[in-house]
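Technical note accompanying the year-one report. For the benefit of new consortium partners, we illustrate the data format agreed upon in the data management plan: each record pairs a sequence with a structure-token string. No post-processing was applied to the example shown here.
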Amino acid sequence: MSLQLSIPDSIIEALRLPEKRIEQELLHELAVALYSQELLSFGKARELALMDKYQFGQLLAQRDVIRHYSSEELEDDLVYANRQ
């Protein structure tokens, strides 16, 4: 399933962004908003934003969005770190 959003031209023009950056910026904003409201996981939000883990983490930091970090994620990270 995919979803298309219709955004009125007046809104797009009000963004004052170069045309080729509009879609990218809107995806970033949506991903950050959904992640900060805990509606999307980090992985799914970064996928929506079309960014890798590092880039999306940096974007969250720039926006002062606290990263949700579950005990399950901690365990995964510890297992990974112990293998190194």
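Partners are asked to follow this layout when depositing records. The chain has one domain: 13-83.
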